[in-house]
Amino acid sequence: MAVGFLFDAQLAVTKQIIIAAIHFFISPYVMFSSILMVFQGISSSLNVLGTFKNSSDLITRVMEKSKGYGQFCPVARAAEIVTARWTPVLLRELLAGSCKFNDLRNGVPQMSPSLLSKRLNELEDAGIVNKKKIPKGRGHEYLITESGKELAPIVMTLGIWGQKFIEDEFSEYDLDPSLLMWDIQRRLDTKFFPKKGRFVSHFYLVGAPKERRNWWLVVSDRNVDLCIHHPGFEEDISVEACLRGLTEVWMGQTSVEEAKKKNHLLFNGNKKYIKSFKDWFLLSPFAEHHPNS
User: Fold this and answer.
1) CATH code (residue 257)
2) Hey, which residues does 224 pair with through a beta bridge?
3) Those residues with Cβ within 8 angstroms of residue 87's Cβ, 6 or more apart along the chain or in another chain
4) pLDDT reported for residue 190
5) 178: domain range?
6) Which of 91, 222, 224, 288 is the most exposed place for a label (fewest CB within 10 A)?
7) Is 167 inside a domain boundary?
8) Could you tell me if residue 37 is inside a domain?
9) What pTM does this model have?
10) What is the total count of domains within the chain?
11) Is the dihedral of CA 62, 63, 68, 70 positive or negative?
12) Which spans in 133-228 are helix H?
């Protein structure tokens, strides 16, 4: 609509200029009146365009509203809020405990920062998150509210359904090393590591993009950090893993033993931590719901 309107306005101005050019060769008086007519036409067109520009916000709001289901049913009204693109996985991150903007980005690495901000604002408007300024530091925290927490079983059920009934293999596009390692760092059983001290594990992901092949899990006093650059500490174990193979282990599609037999998982380092890998590497919370588990 806007493009057509602008085209019509430009066409009208162009016609006025052509008429003025023709009149230029007829007489100076006609030329003067024609130029005056051109400026009047341009002024009129700009006024109309200005009116259109001033009303653009209203038009945008009306168009956004028209994208809803237009139903009083609470399923439809709730879906307008929680099923927008990226919102379900953003809710997954919030419910998993991420509350800082950069942490949320780590959980949705392919989501643009501008869209992430927009979705967080929408969830705030809906009362699902509270945005609070970080007391000591820059930025804000996005804290899940009580009404937001009530969405937890819905998000979990959605994941369980996908785990049970989507049988297609992961496409190359689905294999995201950043998301995989971010998930893993949240699911380490830290009681297997020193209560006071440090544990370092290096993961080398074969098949991942070059800049995302090397990752380090650093557990200091049982607090876990994920690093994409060498942390400068001695490594306790190193894990060389096929990206697809480690993803399948993480999601419960195959066992650690089976991955080792296929050379999808190779270990080196402290035998104590290699032997207990299956115990401290807890897998996805959806892994137990896979038909192969």
Assistant:
1) 3.30.1050.10
2) 219
3) 81, 119, 122, 123
4) 95
5) 172-289
6) 288
7) no
8) yes
9) 0.73
10) 3
11) positive
12) 146-149, 152-165, 177-185
